[in-house]
Design goal:
Shape: globular
CATH superfamily of the largest domain: FAD/NAD(P)-binding domain
Radius of gyration: 22 Å
Oligomer: single chain
CATH class of the largest domain: Alpha Beta
Distance between the termini: 9 Å
Largest sheet: 7 strands, mixed
CATH architecture of the largest domain: 3-Layer(bba) Sandwich
Bound molecules: flavin-adenine dinucleotide
Amino acid sequence: MRPSVVVIGGGLAGLTAARCLRARGCEATVLEAAPGPGGRAAGGEHEGFCWDGGAHAVSARDVNLAALIAEAGLAAELLPLRPERLFQVSGGSSVPIDPAGTLGIARIPGVRWRDALRLRRLPRLLAKFEELIDPADPVLAARLDDRSLADFVRLYFGASALDHWAAPLMAGDALADPHETSRLLFILLHLARHEAPVGSLRGSFRELASALTEESDRFGASVRNVEAAGPGFRVTYEQNGAEQTKESDGVVLATPAEFVLPLAGASLGCAERRFFEAAQSVPALVLVAALEGDFAEKASRFRFRPDERRPVVSMAVEPGGAPSRLVPEGCERAVLVASAEWSAAHFDAPDDVVTKTLAGSLGRVLPGAPDAMRFSRVLRHRRAFPRFDVGRYRDLQRLRDVEADQLARGRHLVFAGDYRIAPTAEAAVVSGQRAATQLADKMTVKIGGR
Ligand SMILES: Cc1cc2nc3c(=O)[nH]c(=O)nc-3n(C[C@H](O)[C@H](O)[C@H](O)COP(=O)(O)OP(=O)(O)OC[C@H]3O[C@@H](n4cnc5c(N)ncnc54)[C@H](O)[C@@H]3O)c2cc1C
């Protein structure tokens, strides 16, 4: 008999886990609360414009994501990555930057010459960190999780490197506060996003999510409870207003960390409960603006310095026409992501208020663009990015040990999601693969062999 697994959550982590479990001979069913797959990565489509849940940047080092795309048969549609030019917005101007390597960082406007000289240490430090860090399993380097990125960058490279290089990187990539965020996350993102080429998919994450979906998966199925039932689990969920249950041998919990306790608290030990009680993420308001006309010649990403009290921290612009299938010819698409503070303060503000304010930032970078908007959409992510404050990777290391211990004792329940590695699509994919492998290793031996 094939072991059965319920995967709760149809984001990239859950869909990847389900795919891997099926490949290992398990019967996997995804239960997803939203009407469609993809979670935070999935966006929408209107009048020939397509968009993701945010302005998703993908790195050439996101090798597991690229492999998943190829396995799903979408390599020709989504890859190779579409290159982007990077700009930093400071004061009233946007300046092209190239933060790959010491020289590029030293040339970012605002980095003082004395701090630029200190950046000569960077290659040596990065070489040392690269030896220690496995990007797919950063908890192995949890001993680096001892100071904030602000303390780290100030100490080694000076205050101007923090303000003009590290803080905009972390705000733009993860809406992270440099004073709270672990330096380990900063090093991970720097290695992935600066030491390797970055671009965007040639298609949408929604296409990938759809390709990973099977007929047995259920959407609009909101799980209410997971409880132990004999050697397996009983999962209670609501679909079309009716309560239903599904029995399974194993469960993958692939929801954001904040949902784990309300769903499965009774099946968890106290160390796990402590981990999930401390889970935090930041919200994001996103404006998708469909523009008529040519504003940027090439695909471009703009980073705003977070200390200038602007609502926006990053913006990506995609010109239309070949080779883009995402934006019609003669048009452009801008995606603006608001800061965590602004998003939290305005989360429930009406769409027109959010649009007007964020379009102000759009107009400062691309004059005339707000008047050329054909339509716009406001996307609201209450839990956009998990927080990786100092100490979180040590907590993750403990969670991993407890989870492995419980698996060894026969509890076939594992956790997946970007919160286990880093706030990226690649991390979500890797966490899904890892959860599936752990579970399949145990279940196919125990249940398959019974
Ligand atoms: C604005 C924004 C910009 C981003 N930019 C980038 C970027 O540039 N590069 C990058 O790599 N990554 C980026 N990301 C991050 C990336 O999208 C996420 O890391 C990834 O999508 C997380 O996937 P996940 O499966 O871990 O979680 P999710 O996508 O959150 O999936 C969890 C799923 O669980 C479901 N769920 C929750 N509760 C229940 C329940 N009770 N029953 C059933 N289902 C439930 C949810 O509906 C959701 O679909 C960005 C994210 C946002 C929001």
